[in-house]
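Entry 14: structure prediction run for CopG family transcriptional regulator. Input pasted below.
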Amino acid sequence: MSNIVPIAPRGKVPESEKVTINLGFVDLGHIDLLVSEGFYANRTDFIRTAIRNQLTAQNDAVRQVVARKMLVLGLQRFGRAELEAVLAAGQALEIRVLGLASIDDDVPPALAQATVASVTVLGAFHASAAVKAALAGRMH
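Run finished. Output tokens:
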């Protein structure tokens, strides 16, 4: 198995992923109060700020885990040409990403299955439904 080298993006990649959360009424009321008093522009602004503050507070722990688990931080993108090169070299990829891992839409499921040994993504994994189905048993 080989380590992954980041691949430069070729096209527009979404800058965010939609996440839905459920909040208790009291917590939501506190957020609305702070928004109405002008501390935050809206609920989303408050939630993003709270998340960034927690990520900053836990930054050292995150860095240690990223290094220990050998995760690529940020964007990891795989196209058909890259996976065909991996196949020709007789290698298999262990995809480990904290951020976004993406397999291009032109990658056939059989090629993904032949070249991807495992997928571990903390964040989002974008691939066609067929590729995700082909790799389902290899995703952690």
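Notes: The mean pLDDT is 90. Will compare against the previous run tomorrow.
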